[in-house]
Saccharopine dehydrogenase NADP binding domain-containing protein
Amino acid sequence: MAQAQLPTYDIVIFGASGFTGKYVVREALKFLDSPNSPLKTLALAGRNSSKLSEALKWASKSHPAVPFLIADTSDPLSLRRMASQTRLVLNCVGPFRLYGNPVVSACVDAGCDYLDICGEPEFMERMEAFYDMKAVEKGSLVISACGFDSVPAELGLMFNSRQWVSPAVPNRVEAYLSLESDKRIVGNFGTFESAVLGVANANKLAELRMSRPKRTRPPIPGPPPPKGSTIEHQKKIGLWAVKLPSADAIVVRRTLSILTNNPSGLEGVFEDPKQAEKRAAFWSTIKPAHFGVKIATKNLLGILGFIPIGLSIGLLGLFSFGRWLLLTFPSFFTLGGFRKTGPTEEQVASASFKMWFVGHGFSDSKLASDGNAKPDTEIITRITGPEIGYLTTPIILVQCALILLKQRGDLPKGGVFPPGIIFGPTDLQDRLQENGISFDLISKSDIST
């Protein structure tokens, strides 16, 4: 009987010549065959070898000998060939609702693992519905949203949660995202296109959820938090904020739902008793809370600028001509916030983010049992890091990949999951801290009633 051929590469970066992909290549090369790194072999994949070559030259002045694989989302055979040659595919080709399904399918069929930087709830939930059982059978881990801002949202909530030492418990945690730069902040067109298509397909997500069993809701101490005003002034952190319609709260809820059904987390395929004990100990410190995300600025005028952008996407995204206008003239409808050309390297280098997590809860869980109970404790934590789309996202994606390569036996055999439930009990937070993304406790205080 012939022996099964081992994968040739540890990682294949698919879409390596794209705007985000080339930054992922640059980040991955820092760890290629370096001391103590599990990344020994790497390949770049895409439709055009000359563009892959250009991306590699851009990412590294030394031009390392990294092979290229030709693969296209319209050619399933090329995707299966790519997936059969690697342990892990990092997918940077979006919008994922248009191009992601065949890549996931190829990875699951080949039994290789898959990470992406998707922020599209319908795609993530559809992949779970379609491929979860087969991924378990094939031993393929499929994890979306391994970038900004879903991983900071998940790890940020967990970091805040761990500050609530028993008998204290959180009731709600609100995340406030502040983008900062001394130059104009410009977003990736692919992110904008994903948002527009998300509005267009909102009914499909609702239909998908209606067709599936309802997720388990975690028990959260105390009454549901009030809705609050549309525009909020958070005086303690000095920010004005408005709700951000992102995937983060949805991703967090998926992790908390899985955790509710698996209080000790998910068992690793080859983990030893010591690792199992460590995993269970970590999850015992995580307390569920209501969670939301808001976009924030230091002044009210900045927030007022976000509202017309949100309204234009929300209204024009509902019909085909409106979507054509949005996608043809993104700079006009976002006041220059998104451009087809993307940001310059100088704009990327000058940008940074702060993500504040303001937690309200009870100093004693017994207080939460009163139906009229109001939180009496506030804990504020914060994550800071470099530009979100092209610096922080590659850092997160590559660190998730390195953990997966190094600790594969401590992770589930396979399945389709959000990142938090997989990477929460690993050393991902420490790794991010070592690579420029900081986690800080800002304050603990009583709330006067």
The chain has 18 helices and 16 strands.
